[in-house]
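Record format v2
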Amino acid sequence: MTDTTLRNRVAIVGVGESEIGKVPHMTGLGLNAQAAKRALDETGLKPSDIDGLLTAYSMTEPYFMLGSVMCEYLGLKPTFNASMVVGGASPAVMLKHAAEAIVSGQAEVILCCAGENRATGQTRDQAVAALAAVGHPYYEQPYGASIPSFYAMITRRHMHEYGTTREQLAQMAVTTRDHAVRHPNAHMTKPITVEEVINSKPIAEPLNILDCCLISDAGGAYIVTTAERAKDLKSDPVYLHGIGEYHTHEHLMCADSLTEFGALETGRRAYTMAGLGPEDMDFAELYDCFSVVPMIEMEELGLCERGGAGAMVEAGDTRIDGRLPVNTHGGMLSHAHAGAAGGLFGIIEAVRQLRGQEGERQVANHDVALVHNEGGILSSHCTMILGREER
Amino acid sequence: MTGQRPEPFVNADSEIYWAATKESRLVLQECADCGHVDLMPRHVCPKCWSENRTWTDAVGTGTVHSFSIVHRAPLPAFREDCPYVVALIDLAEGPRIMTNIVGDGALEVVIGDRVEVCFEDRGEAKVPQFRLARAGGGS
Ligand SMILES: [Zn+2]
């Protein structure tokens, strides 16, 4: 069955990111609001035009009804309001829900936002302890298993099955940092070397600190509307060609495999809806909470062969001037990671690259982009294909 | 200090699992209808949704599917144990369990190593742990 229901029906018309890094003078809600204002300003729309709101969750400001709290804070009175709680996959899943709501007439202009003051809204110990709660409370947490240790076990298995090397993993972090260096709002902008990654502080072998995502204060937002209305707005629209989600487990002990995950299925669904294939993607913004993750996603999404990501990264193919630029903003490894907002910055970056606005960071070919978000321990997945032309 | 580590949390799903570990037995839940065996206790079989749940004793052996040596503990109670091994073990019966590799040579573990269950006191209860079962008994 070919599901083309959502193909070219909606467009992202505004994107915005808040101040990023250590932003102690702002709350999590404030970061969301700043990002939302910046996204709305691109469109020329007024706050009162927003009739739908999608949010995720916040660990530093754990409101019981975050969506309603956000409405209250922003002075919105939407007819459609829901929160996505699928970890890092939330921002991409928001677009699918937004598109479905718009196509079915529930709303016409939907604000999607996420973000937290993860860096300054809690101590580092609180941050690490809160993240430990991602492990199964009864069968994983009693063993002192950290999130890095889960991804470390996945990394080690990838090395074992495909011969992926420590150097290749490090190169993923280095290339990503090189991209962040060219981003005016990135959290980390000092270049790093493969040697520095390999010699950085061990967190959970084989992962070192420079293989791990940041903990940032950051908020991100994007605005979605109908493809028709998008044409009348101030900004250049970016159309949704295809999108798919898939949820397989939450805890790593219950995952069927440590090398094959749900991105294979979400990619298949997104490509089918778009009527495109991996070979049509000009660049990709992939989830990169740890260095191995975008490599697994490249393989699952057909952007390279199984086990081929290490060689592809090592060859420089994922650089901005490479065959398939990946994480051109610096990803979560170097641009920003703040709770559910991590993957949202990949969506923002894809929109900006497709519009051709990125100056020295601009990729050469920018007609079609792939964005992938994942949540949990490669548990919940969502792939979207975006483009600057209706096709 | 080990007393500060998380103790087993007993609920209606896991009551029998933790009662068994208290007696130094590792048990697995089995579906009386389709035969599916699983580690994480639950009300229905995740394969066929049968509510006919039975329990079977695991032989207590398995192989290391993957592991990590943790240098930064997620909770203060584990800090003094660093570096320690977190691992996923494929049990002889099929299910996968998360655990620590403890005892002699734990930090030298490799994928594919054979391991056997042991039990660690946590307050009034016990949690299953695994140690290497290398030919020659290790050193
Ligand atoms: Zn069954």
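Residues B 31, 33-34, 36, 45, 47-48, 50 surround zinc ion (CB under 6 Å).
Chain B has a mean pLDDT of 93.
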